[in-house]
Amino acid sequence: MEIVVDNSKFNDYQETVIKCIIESIRSTLENREVKKEIIEDLTGTLAFGVAAIIDSSQDMGTGKNPVLPFLTFSKDFEDKDTLIVNNKGGSYMHELVYGCIDDVFKEEYNEDDLYP
Asked: What's the N-to-C CA distance of the chain in angstroms?
């Protein structure tokens, strides 16, 4: 297995992943007819929590047996033996959540709707 350090690709990939997580949470809340005023706030809070787990920013496991996820990306579908990593030691998606929320929520709500 080959490990390739490519901070630019890694950042693009993790941004894509967190946007997909945000879109999934948003869609779930909209389908449950959650009031539009709280969808964005709940989406951000939930996405931040999920990202913090993936990033190992939240303590998991025990002192003797910590659980430390390490996000990597496959180079492409054909070359799954080459993994793209970040030289900073892992993902930091939780830091991208609130900036990505703005991108995902840029469409306007209709005031008559419970959800977009």
From this structure: 45
